[in-house]
Amino acid sequence: MALSAFKQAALAATLAAGCSAVWAQGTSATVKFNGQAYGSSTSATLNFASDPRTGAPSTASAGSGGFSITVNNSSTFASYCVEPFQYISFGSTYTDYKLRTDPQNFKWSTSSPGINGFDPTRSPAISQRLGQMWAYADATYGLGTTPVNDAAKASASTALQWAIFNTLYDTDNSVSAGGTGNKFWITATSTNGSILGMANSILQQSVNYQFQYGINVLTSLNSQDQIYANGIPTPVPEPGTFAMTLAGLMAVGFVARRRRVQQG
Question: 38, 111, 153, 217: least buried by Cβ within 10 Å?
């Protein structure tokens, strides 16, 4: 039975509170990379008008698609890479990851904000868009939050990966639009043209999608950072929600301060 938006939000809050004791901000984690989440990947050329590391134009080659990862030898998730400049090996376990559950603290790659193209001021917006796209891709293509060896979903998984790269490294909604003013694009070939179209569809159709997933980040100084979703559909905040919340907090603070002054 479908849950109302209010009940979904309440359930998400309850589950998030229940998980906080286990998955605390900055928790150390071991991550094993089992393989592709949906059985195969598609290679592509990633183009950067300004390489986040050097500032010069560059390209990177990436075999894209969701990964199957096991965290702390217990929970297995479908994950997506958020930096194409580092590497992992399937079958290997890495012990230097940190779990970041607070989107204000998302830092791809290194401890210095801004490295690898990440802009801290865009953090909440990036987090929301990633969760929104993943929820849309799940509803449209069945890309859940746990890996399934289903080759029929491999193209959609690759498309979601490319849409994620575009959201991180560009501000438009097209992975295939190179040219003046574009920061990131993927070169189309005869084998990945349809996947590029699917990635653009995910980017464009999810803009007004009603729900989003919560996104967690696993960061490492030496290996590719990964995101995974909690799979709980929560309503996308209305544009005025944050402003109203801030105004409410300011009002509460003003009243508390005024009471202290009166008591003094």
Answer: 111
